[in-house]
Amino acid sequence: MVGLKEELLKSIWHAFTALDLDRSGKVSKSQLKASAAARPGPVLSHNLCTVLNVPHDPVALEEHFRDDDEGPVSNQGYMPYLNKFILEKVQGNFDKVEFNRMCWTLCAKKNLSKSPLLITDEDAFKVWVIFNFLSEDKYPLIIVPEEIEYFLKKLTEAMGAGWQQEQFDHYKIALNTSREGLSAWELIELIGSGQFSKGMDRQTVSMAINEVFNELILDVLKQGYMLKKGHKRKNWTERWFVLKPNIISYYVSEDLKDKKGDIILDGNCCVEALPDKDGKKCLFLIKCLDKSFEISASDKKKKQEWIQAIQTTVSLLRAGSPPPHKEARQKRKELRQKLLAEHEELERQMKELQTANENKQKELETVRKQLEAAAARAAEEEKKRLQTQVELQDRFSLELEREKMVRQKMEEQVAQKSSELEQYLQRVRELEEMYKQLQEALEDEKQARQDEETVRKLQARLLEEESAKRAELEKWHLQQQQTIQMTEAEKQELENQRMIKEQALQVAMQQLEQLELERKEALEQYEEVKKKLETAANNTKSWKDKVAHHEGLIRLIEPGSKNPHLITNWGPAAFTEAELEQRQKSWKGKKNTSE
């Protein structure tokens, strides 16, 4: 992406520098905005976003320069905006020729020479694009003599003429005396003047420019007519083939308007010659992962050229190398940079040597004077040294005695500290033992708490079950009381009817029969309740205690004893004598109360 960005910047630089300048030599902001009201016709920012397929933000430029709304926009101010809002969003999915043509349209009218040229405007456009490809990466853009020579050699080779090295050497000498290189418009004027294409007509020059343009700009490595065998109908059809670094496209004709298909190349592809068959000669096969393509060249030379070109392309894909012309351009730039660096380094070393020689002369004179002064100082310093030596000996003796005393004190302190350290270590061991015991006690306590929690949960579950059984028993007790109250009310009604008229006896007998059925159902319900009570009694003892507590008030219906049964007007008695007496007292009390 860095190389693509540099190529885009070169074309944009031409378009930007061609915009109208104000008095201060800067471009007005209205020429960069994407608003149609800024000025008639297309404007730079909007056109760039359109041809580069970048989403356009009409407010971005205004916000970028919001602190300078009244003043013009300089090149230095516009480039950060260009990088941030346009170039950083470029994905490579745009038409490079259309992009270059847009920039060419903005700058050609102002910069192209008015003098008649031997090349067309389309050829001039292609030379301008080639200039951007070969120019140096510094501004203002120029193309150095080495790249001019490379370009002219390519043109001469494409025209089928011989290269005039001597003629170019004279031109190069004249060029080097005045400047470092040519601008794009000077290069166009050089090509259009016919200085290096004498004897060639316009069509030949135009075809040569187009061939060099296809190779350097469109990455066309080879192109030409060949026959291709169909995959379905197996017929042979003439197609115009175009070989690029990773693809072979074939068209109906060389105008490239009707594209028929692509052959995608990668490192796994291969090409091999085939023997003549079916009346077709000069055959070769292109093998890809998904399918193979049989091609027939016009002659053996073309066949070998195509096989060699495709093999070279596949080898470059396997190695991950750029196309040959781009790699050659990079090597030429690196060589120029290396030579320039070596030349600069040589000049720097010469200057350093000259400066070092002058410095050495000065240093020698300074050293001579310093030696004379040093000899005088040496005698004086020797005298002072002897005196200082005596003083130092006395001082060292005192220091030695003092050091002995300090060492003795330090040894005593070390012995004391060793004793204290031993006591401290003993205390640490005791604490560690206590810590282990404490850990064991905590583990025992933790286990006891877990056991206690387990027992507590078991007790809670038993209490819940006991509570549920108690609620169920109370429910059945309430139903039994209601049944008894209904029986008392019916008995009172029968007594009244018996005293009123004797005929009600028959009705009472029918009711007694109904009550007999209900009593049997009650006995069945009692059996079910008895079973539930037995289950509850097995789960907890507390339930029996509470049943015993209420036994004086409620006595559950049970099978009669072996003693003689009481006979009532309802049939065999379901109560004991004590219970019957208690019920009679209750009935009499209610009767007295009602009277």
Automatic annotation (TrEMBL):
Residues 219-315 form the PH domain. Signal peptide: none annotated. Keywords: Cell membrane, Cell projection, Coiled coil, Cytoplasm, DNA-binding, Membrane, Nucleus, Phosphoprotein. The keyword Cytoplasm applies. One of its GO terms (cellular component) is nucleus. The keyword Membrane applies. GO terms for molecular function: DNA binding. It is found in: Cell membrane; Cell projection, Lamellipodium; Cytoplasm; Nucleus. Transmembrane segments: none annotated. Phosphatidylinositol 3,4,5-trisphosphate-dependent guanine nucleotide exchange factor (GEF) which, independently of RAS, transduces signals from tyrosine kinase receptors to RAC. It also mediates signaling of membrane ruffling. Regulates the actin cytoskeleton as an effector or adapter protein in response to agonist stimulated phosphatidylinositol (3,4)-bisphosphate production and cell protrusion. The SWAP complex consists of NPM1, NCL, PARP1 and SWAP70. This is Switch-associated protein 70. The lineage of its organism: Eukaryota, Metazoa, Chordata, Craniata, Vertebrata. The gene is Swap70.
